[in-house]
Amino acid sequence: MADTFSHTVPVGAPAARVWEALQDAQTWSNIGPIDAVWDSEHTADGTLARYRWSANAAGRSWKGTATTAEAHPGVRMRLDLTSSEIVGAIAVELHQDFITVSMEASPRGFLATMFWGTVKAALESGLPEQVEAFARALDGG
To answer: From CA 81, how far away is CA 87, in angstroms rounded?
Structure first.
């Protein structure tokens, strides 16, 4: 069973600007476990389709792929995250004056299972600050 975390934060940027930012793979860097992103791909209409990512947790680096599972313009975007040791998802729901970022994650492999308590604690404690920084960036500051 996946562990789930979420954080809601006010945002002054219009939903269209938030949606546009979500189509840039770099936007997803530093949200949830993701430290760096590269090799992004987009669909013909400009929707972010996938990217590769890396994360540091429990004293090691993890690499994987994010694939867009849901894209409802101006409303919700969900990316499925996969790696050899961790699977999960990050979703952003857009509302008129706020956004909610939800993350789910679970270990997928012996090593991740051994260190899951540490990884889970890092994900859970880091998400609020990451989402608030994301909202500040969208608001231009």
So the answer is: 6
